[in-house]
Write a structure and sequence with these properties.
Strand order of the largest sheet: 1-2-7-4-3
Bound molecules: protoporphyrin IX containing FE
Number of domains: 1
CATH topology: Cytochrome p450
Number of helices: 17
CATH superfamily: Cytochrome P450
Oligomer: single chain
Length: about 425
């Protein structure tokens, strides 16, 4: 198959491709994996963003993991988003660690890792358990037939970030609302004006959030508390601490990277455990034994963040294709995670799969998801409590797929119990 023929039929740069059902998108990637050289695509036109010259799609497990392993060739600068955010965004929101290479990335990661220590994770387990139970109480009050995303998954995921950062109760709705706006934005609506409106709403939302967290940072710098913001704005033993700008960028990244991904992981998880009753029975036969591998299988199978981007720094060849400095690559985790040369029966959902070298958390590499252990804990607590209190909880139907080239998301998933 030639590159051109594939591009006509399967155009990863066209939002129409991303409107197709997920099973069709996966079938297209299975075809792309058969092609030796990485295929080149044009970039989608998203209002408010500059369209670049296009990108090479890395779709095989080996190619994706090699790119992650070699940041000296595959750079995260100027941005892992393709097309990149407008230049003014950096001045307003700051530069988040995910868009930086070492040593600047390493410095931020060292400071921010303090937010993800085992002690913080244990504290978070208690908070998540309490939060999940409050959410289940409300679901029981509402009765069956509600939307799992807005009633359960989003509030759990947003609650984790808010608890972690110490966002006061009165601001939490703002965080959840901003998440919805973000999802709408990456969903790039078909109408130009609707997309522009969303872009503006999204930017304003992010500015509001950032302002809120910077104000919290200033308060905590004066009067530190037992929370993550206090740790980040006060110096560690090496005298390192986050500046206001960096704290704002960190929070924006948490909201962008840690809420919809986790929420979609839980929602798709419920859907998969409904459509695979034998896997659910196995899980419930010994929850503590099977949940660790079940989580890895859910994130492999779903791959909530379907891709990331990199820019070539030095000339490099991938399967006969020469990549030159400045060329863009999109690394498709969703495709690497179904690579038949690495996973036996990759389209089978098997909660006992082990080993499971999926790339859903961006491993292996220096940008490996900092929140991976937190989200593992979050999903474990959420499913443990949901199955304990609502043993026959199940998704109704397949849910509505979000139109996005980044998030494997659902905009709605009805559920009953
Ligand atoms: C199922 C849920 C999640 C998935 C699938 C996911 C996926 C990813 C991926 C693929 C990357 C690497 C991006 C790249 O290399 O370009 C990443 C980075 C990151 N994630 Fe997650 N994530 C999840 C949840 C979370 C949560 C809950 C948090 C925070 C509480 C979080 C915080 C971060 C941060 C801070 C980075 C940047 C790390 C760095 O640049 O060194 N993520 N995540």
């Amino acid at each position: 198959m030639t590159t051109a023929a594939v591009s006509d039929e399967i155009d990863l740069g066209n939002m129409a491709f991303w409107a197709r059902p997920h099973s069709e998108r996966l079938a297209a990637f299975a075809q792309l994996r058969k092609i030796e050289r990485p295929v080149y695509f044009g970039e989608p036109r998203i209002p408010g963003l500059r369209s670049g010259k296009g990108f090479y799609a890395l779709v095989r497990h080996h190619d994706v993991t090699e790119a992650l392993r070699h940041p000296e060739i595959f750079s995260s600068e100027p941005s892992v988003s393709i097309p990149p955010p407008p230049p003014w965004a950096k001045y307003i929101f700051g530069n988040s660690m995910v868009n930086l290479d070492d040593p600047r990335h390493g410095r931020l990661r060292r400071i921010i890792s303090r937010a993800f220590t085992p002690r913080m994770l244990n504290k978070s387990e208690q908070d998540v358990t309490a939060n999940v139970n409050r959410i289940i109480d409300r679901a029981i009050e509402h009765g069956p037939g509600g939307d799992f995303i807005s009633m359960v998954a989003n509030p759990i995921a947003a609650g984790v970030i808010c608890d972690m950062v110490g966002v006061p109760e009165e601001h939490r709705k703002l965080v959840i609302d901003r998440v919805h706006t973000w999802a709408d934005y990456t969903g790039a609506r078909p109408s130009f004006t609707a997309s522009l409106r969303l872009a503006a709403k999204n930017s304003l939302g992010l500015i509001g959030l950032r302002r809120m967290v910077i104000a919290l940072g200033k308060e905590r710098a004066k009067e530190p508390k037992e929370d993550v913001i206090s740790q980040l704005v006060t110096a560690n033993i090496d005298g390192e601490r986050l500046t206001s700008m960096e704290l704002g960028a960190f929070f924006t990244l948490l909201v962008a990277a840690g809420i919809n991904t986790a929420s979609n992981g839980m929602a798709h998880g419920l859907r998969l455990l409904t459509t695979h009753p034998e896997q659910r029975e196995l899980l419930l036969s010994d929850f503590d034994k099977h949940m660790p591998t079940a989580i890895e299988e859910i994130v492999r199978y779903v791959t909530p963040g379907m891709r990331t981007g990199r820019t070539i720094k030095v000339e490099h060849e991938v399967n006969g294709q020469v990549l030159r400095p400045g060329d863009k690559c999109v690394l498709y985790f969703m495709s690497a995670n179904r690579d038949e040369t690495v996973f036996t029966d990759p389209d089978v959902f098997d909660i006992t799969r082990d080993p499971n070298p999926h790339t859903a958390f961006g491993a292996p590499g220096i940008h490996f998801c900092l929140g991976a252990n937190l989200v593992r804990k979050e999903m474990t607590v959420a499913f443990r409590e949901l199955f304990r209190r609502l043993p026959d909880i199940r998704a109704i139907g397949e849910g509505k797929q979000l139109r996005s080239n980044f998030e494997n998301g659902l905009t709605e998933l009805r559920f009953e119990f």
